[in-house]
Amino acid sequence: MRQFVLLGHDVPTEPDFSLDDLAGGAGRLDALCRSITASFVTSHGIREDVRTHLVVQDELTISFDGSELRRLNPDERSTAALVRMALEHRDEAIGALPAEPSPGIELYRRGFEATLDAVAGDGPIVQLHEDGDPIVDVSAGALTDATFVLSDHHDFTATERAILAAHVDRRVRLGPELLHADQAVTIAHHYLDTAGYDRF
User: Fold this and answer.
1) Spatial separation of the C-alpha atoms in residues 40 and 67, rounded to whole Å
2) Segments making up each domain of the chain, as ranges
3) What three-state secondary structure class fits 62?
4) What gap in Å lies between CA 79 and CA 102, rounded to an integer?
5) CA–CA separation, 152 vs 9, rounded Å?
6) How distant, in Å, are the alpha carbons of 65, 125, 138 from that of 172?
């Protein structure tokens, strides 16, 4: 199971945003939706062995499970509609129990640290970062069942960096250029799909 944790610093915690203004009124939800879509969608299919967690303002986490996910299309608007639908059910999340607004989608009342705690036993936690080890120097086997952590258009805050320091098993760099998060997700998938560029 591959997992991705995406930080949405400016995404609204209320579902009162317009699907026609994802870049402005929804706190760059457009970019985060591209990352969510990239984590799941293949040509004419969906990755069933992936979970992606969107952390909203360190208050809520929306988790998507590819083995059960429905109505995810390869466009940011439909993905944003799933995010908004999850937020519409936020009052149903009580304590550690999530709201379950749709198959494959759960909304938890937990922030970044609690989300990393929840995935910590599933495999290594990997921060994608320009100062990390080159991915070609990391065997694909060492990234089996990894959880990759990415931020949105903002850098990690000092608090988030401290949380990462306590949870991350390694930092990995995907290449010499800084990439958008959705591009990074695609490259991470490709590296593991090809067993470290050995299988095509």
Assistant:
1) 10
2) 2-193
3) strand
4) 13
5) 7
6) 24, 10, 8
Containing 185, the helix (H) or strand (E) segment is: helix 181-193
Q: Which residues pair with 173 in a beta bridge?
A: 134
Right CATH for 2-193 from 3.40.630.30, 3.10.20.30, 3.30.1050.10, 3.40.1280.10: 3.40.1280.10
**Per-residue pLDDT tens over the stretch 139-176:** 999 999 999 999 999 999 999 999 999 999 999 999 99
* Predicted confidence (pLDDT) per residue in 168-177, tens digit: 999 999 999 9
Hey, what are 68's tokens? 């059960």
Amino acid code (one letter) for 45 = G
Stated pTM of the model: 0.96
Measure Cα distances from 90 to 22, 25, 105, 140, 168 in Å: 20, 19, 12, 37, 29
Rounded to an integer, what is the distance from CA 17 to the centroid of its chain? 20
How many C-beta atoms lie closer than 10 Å to residue 7's C-beta? 24
Using DSSP bridges, classify how beta strands 125-134 and 170-173 pair: parallel, antiparallel or unpaired: parallel
DSSP 119-162: HTTTS-EEEEEEEEEEGGGS-GGGGTT-EEEE--SSPPPHHHHH
